[in-house]
């Protein structure tokens, strides 16, 4: 087994709304290993996106810890967390989150703003990334000119262009047809083979079973099932 | 990501919101333009006053007057008159007809000696002027002559010549005309006058002729006067004072009559050697023509050239002793001191006061003028600043709007690894760009306004026949200050919104649709 990369302990994200408390994530203990391909499945509202945000240091847990490579993420300064995101993490959001007034190329190029890559290299890398995702003809298009699937791929390109150590992808194939889904699946598989850790949230259990090393099923903020791909099942 | 990238992004964002950027920057443009135009006026005024003062040598000149026993109010009034009418001495003498002053110490030859001995005074000379007629060829001009010692021509006040040269000695039969003279009498080719002959002449009235008329005149018989008196009423105080008043008025009338009509003509022929540059307009204290001291003495000893009112006021002021018209008691209306470089005007003024005279210094005056300019500038700057504050509220508004609209973008940037400093800097760059654009355009507009103002003022001055003075200048400090203020205010206005932007919660920002 590979080196332990991310480890959470009793990770909680509770939202207090008046008298009631929404337990979006509730006491999750999770280990993610280097170069692992992990899939998180679960019904809508079970806390999948929330976990991803906390692993990326975007959201702050109400309880529990996240350790990345042995360091407590939320003991870091905000600047350190920012550079952790800049250097190590690629994120694909469920709702793409492209900037509408910028071109596809610029949206991808932006991911390289924070690691001292010079402008021409940024453009070269972004162009190559978009071309590899079949968007070579779409560089100068604004997101509104692109189909949902194309926007999805721009979002994936943005996450991958900086060669992250870990890729967090929230429903990266949610809007894609079978052909594009297969294309993304292959891309992720190739990246994973190159050693990139992949954490993917998906509704598509067959997709997960086909690609992931390990599948985690969540319900009401808790891990309810861990499926080791290759048949070995276990409960949390 | 370097500053160039950052500027590129900012420009892109501002360009996308062209109209909003334009409107926001307009506020800054207006404020800076107002600020620049107004301060340019202030700076121009100050520069020019200093330049004029310096050019005319007024910084090393002090005028000494007699001290009079007046109430403070009257003195203040007189001070103002003197400063405005240095060259129009006759008016200020006329004033003394109204205000009956007691002179404590006369400005006589003794005073001249004492004043010239004050440390730092390189030259002291009296101001003497005469009303005379000047005849060149067939034309005769009524004007004023002034006598100056030769050394006075070495001072800045009188050293500039438009044509020709200075008088050779205090006793030469030469004369200097002035630009003022040329201008007043519309003489076409002033340089052709050099070397030409000219006759000056004056009616010499003596005090004696006036006094004689009081006692004996054609329409006056002392016996008749005595007959008119009502002797039994002489005990009545009112009657006595009425009689005395009528008699006194009568006597004055007869004095004037005698003074005016019983006189002789004094004249002399002189050669025009030069034309003094005393500028146009009322800028120097020199009279229209300048004659050597010896000529002046000659005219003076015959009582020539003093206006009747002039003479009368001197008698009433005690400046002329009616019964002893000797040269020792002759007193001057003012004495000019030329001050050596490096001596404090205040110290010299104190010495003059200690001698019992009243000093007037342009340098000290200039300090006060500067003080006024300082307040003036501050006032103008304040108006510009208020406009700038209004503009800065516009910037705050624009930036807050921009941040609300770009909340998602901020969230994305943060998820991509932007830290708070970056986000803050990004928005500060944008407001800084607005400030830069606004300030630059504002400076240009301010300059245009100042050119327009200058054009209007100049053409007005020229129409009035005054030397056009540049009242608007745009020194580099003003440009830099205006730019720095525009930029600083824009950055300050952008700081609060930028800090707010830096604190945006990325999760919330990314969830919002
Ligand atoms: N700011 C918030 N305030 C209150 N409740 C919240 C907030 N953010 C998320 N939640 C709740 O937390 C729960 C988990 O949300 P999350 O987005 O993680 O679900 P998810 O598993 O990603 O669902 P989906 O599959 O639909 O994307 C949901 O019930 C959601 O309503
Ligand atoms: Mg989700």
Query: How many strands, what sense, and barrel or not for the largest sheet of chain B?
Result: 6 strands, mixed, barrel
Taking all Cα atoms into account, the compactness measure Rg of chain A is: 18 Å
- Helix and strand content put the structural class of chain B at alpha+beta
Number of helices of chain A: 7
**Mean of all residue-level pLDDT scores of chain B:** 76
Strand content of chain A: 25-35%
Measured between the Cα atoms of the first and last residue of chain A, the distance is: 20 Å
Distance between the termini of chain B: 28 Å
Order of secondary-structure elements of chain B: HHEHHHEEHEEHEHHHEEHHEHEHHHHH
The chain pair forming the largest interface, with residue counts per chain, is: A-B, 28 and 21 residues
Jot down its keywords.
heterodimer, A: 236 residues, alpha/beta, seven-stranded mixed beta sheet, four-stranded antiparallel beta sheet, 7 helices, 11 strands, 32% helix, 30% strand, B: 513 residues, alpha+beta, six-stranded mixed beta barrel, 18 helices, 10 strands, 57% helix, elongated, binds adenosine-5'-triphosphate, binds magnesium ion
Provide structural commentary.
The complex is a heterodimer of chains A (about 240) and B (about 525). Chain A has about 240 residues and is of the alpha/beta class. Chain A has 7 helices and 11 strands. In chain A, a hairpin with a 2-residue loop joins strand 9 and strand 10 (about 220-230). With about 525 residues, chain B is of the alpha+beta class. Chain B is built from 18 helices and 10 strands. A 6-stranded mixed β-barrel of chain B has the order 2-3-8-5-7-6, surrounded by 4 helices. In chain B, helix 2 (about 20-55) packs antiparallel against helix 14 and helix 2 packs across helix 16. Chain B is elongated. Bound molecules: adenosine-5'-triphosphate (ATP) and magnesium ion. The site of magnesium ion (MG) has 4 residues of chain A, from helix 1.
């Amino acid at each position: 087994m590979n080196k332990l990369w991310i480890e959470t302990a009793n990770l909680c994200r509770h939202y207090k709304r008046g008298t009631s408390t929404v337990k979006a994530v509730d006491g999750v203990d999770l280990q993610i290993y280097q170069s692992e391909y992990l899939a998180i499945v679960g019904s809508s509202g079970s806390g999948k996106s929330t976990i991803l945000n906390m692993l990326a240091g975007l959201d702050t847990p109400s309880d529990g810890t996240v350790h990345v490579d042995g360091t407590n993420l939320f003991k870091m300064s905000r600047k350190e967390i920012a550079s952790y995101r800049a250097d190590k993490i690629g994120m694909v959001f469920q709702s793409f989150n492209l900037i509408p007034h910028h071109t596809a190329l610029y949206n991808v190029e932006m991911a390289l703003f924070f690691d001292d890559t010079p402008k021409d290299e940024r453009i070269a890398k972004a162009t190559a990334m978009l071309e590899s995702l079949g968007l070579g003809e779409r560089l100068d298009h604004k997101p509104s000119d692109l189909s949902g699937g194309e926007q999805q791929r721009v979002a994936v390109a943005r996450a991958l262009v900086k060669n992250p150590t870990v890729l967090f992808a929230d429903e990266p194939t949610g809007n894609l047809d079978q052909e594009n889904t297969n294309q993304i699946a292959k891309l992720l598989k190739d990246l994973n083979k190159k050693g990139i850790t992949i954490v993917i949230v998906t509704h598509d259990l067959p997709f997960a079973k086909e690609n992931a090393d390990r599948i985690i099923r969540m319900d009401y903020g808790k891990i309810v099932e861990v499926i080791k791909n290759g048949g070995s099942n276990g409960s949390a | 990501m370097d500053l160039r990238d950052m500027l590129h992004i900012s420009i892109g964002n501002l360009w996308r919101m062209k109209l909003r950027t334009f409107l926001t920057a307009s506020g800054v443009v207006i404020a800076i333009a107002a600020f620049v135009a107004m301060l340019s006026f202030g700076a121009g005024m100050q520069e020019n006053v200093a330049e004029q003062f310096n050019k005319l040598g007024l910084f090393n000149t002090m005028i000494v007057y007699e001290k009079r026993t007046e109430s403070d109010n009257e003195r203040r009034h007189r001070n103002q008159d003197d400063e405005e009418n240095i060259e129009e001495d006759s008016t200020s003498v006329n004033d003394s007809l109204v205000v009956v002053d007691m002179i404590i110490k006369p400005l006589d030859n003794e005073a001249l000696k004492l004043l010239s001995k004050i440390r730092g005074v390189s030259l002291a000379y009296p101001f003497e002027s005469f009303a005379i007629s000047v005849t060149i060829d067939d034309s005769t001009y009524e004007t004023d002559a002034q006598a100056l010692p030769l050394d006075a021509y070495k001072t800045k006040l009188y050293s500039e010549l438009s044509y020709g040269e200075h008088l050779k000695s205090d006793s030469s039969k030469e004369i200097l005309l002035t630009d003022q003279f040329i201008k007043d009498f519309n003489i076409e080719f002033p340089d052709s006058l050099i070397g030409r002959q000219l006759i000056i002449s004056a009616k010499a009235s003596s005090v004696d002729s006036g006094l004689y008329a009081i006692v004996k005149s054609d329409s006056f018989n002392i016996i008749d006067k005595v007959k008119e008196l009502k002797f039994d009423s002489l005990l009545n105080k009112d009657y006595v004072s009425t009689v005395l008043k009528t008699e006194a008025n009568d006597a004055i009338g007869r004095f004037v009559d005698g003074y005016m009509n019983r006189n002789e003509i004094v004249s002399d022929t002189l050669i025009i050697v030069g034309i003094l540059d005393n500028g146009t307009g009322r800028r120097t204290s020199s009279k229209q023509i300048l004659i050597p001291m010896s000529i002046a003495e000659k005219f003076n000893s015959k009582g020539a050239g003093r206006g009747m009112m002039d003479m009368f006021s001197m008698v009433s002021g005690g400046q002329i002793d009616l019964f002893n018209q000797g040269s020792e008691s002759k007193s001057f209306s003012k004495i000019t001191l030329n001050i050596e470089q490096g001596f404090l005007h205040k110290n010299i003024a104190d010495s003059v006061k200690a001698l019992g005279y009243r000093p007037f210094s342009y340098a000290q005056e200039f300090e006060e003028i500067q003080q006024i300019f300082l307040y003036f500038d501050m006032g103008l700057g304040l108006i510009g600043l208020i406009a700038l504050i209004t503009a800065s509220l516009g910037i705050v508004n624009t930036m807050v709007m921009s941040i609300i609209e770009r909340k998602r973008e901020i969230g994305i940037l943060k998820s991509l690894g932007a830290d708070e400093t970056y986000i803050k800097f990004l928005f500060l760059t944008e407001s800084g760009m607005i400030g830069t654009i606004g300030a630059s355009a504002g400076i240009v507009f301010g300059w245009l306004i100042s050119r327009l103002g200058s054009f209007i003022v100049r053409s007005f001055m020229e129409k009035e026949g005054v030397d056009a003075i540049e009242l608007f200048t745009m020194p580099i400090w003003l440009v830099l200050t205006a730019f720095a203020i525009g930029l600083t205010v824009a950055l300050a206005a952008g700081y609060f919104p930028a800090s707010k932007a830096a604190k945006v919660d990325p999760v919330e920002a990314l969830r919002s649709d």
